[in-house]
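In this supplementary section we document a worked example of the pipeline. Step one takes a protein sequence of length 123 as its only input; no multiple sequence alignment statistics are reported here. Step two produces a three-dimensional model, which step three serialises into structure tokens for compact storage. The input and output of this example are shown verbatim.
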Amino acid sequence: MGGNLLAAIEAKRKPDPARFLFGRIRHVGAVTARDLVKAFGTVEHVADVATRAADDPEARGELEASTASAGRREALIDFFAEEHNRVAWDDLLSQVQPVSVRQRTARLAVSGQTLVFTGSRRR
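The serialised model returned by step three reads:
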């Protein structure tokens, strides 16, 4: 039984990165978190860009290109502008390692082609 418990604990040390963001930053929803992780690849990179975005127009531009709402971007920037939030974030990341996202593009027989569906449905 102890082995199962330890295995379950270890499995939770590699959380889904979008859920990790969504669960920690107020006003950053599940969709925004997913978009951020897709855009930046890791939660560490999201944190780095959001931290720099408070003072760096280039980082702010990167963030603007990756999220839909100005309010959500500001919530993210505000979160990382707070020293106690960054300390808590770093402490948490010392215990867990959210998996990175790698964008995969599959090459299919229909890749690059336009599909058109026409006709009617018969019963």
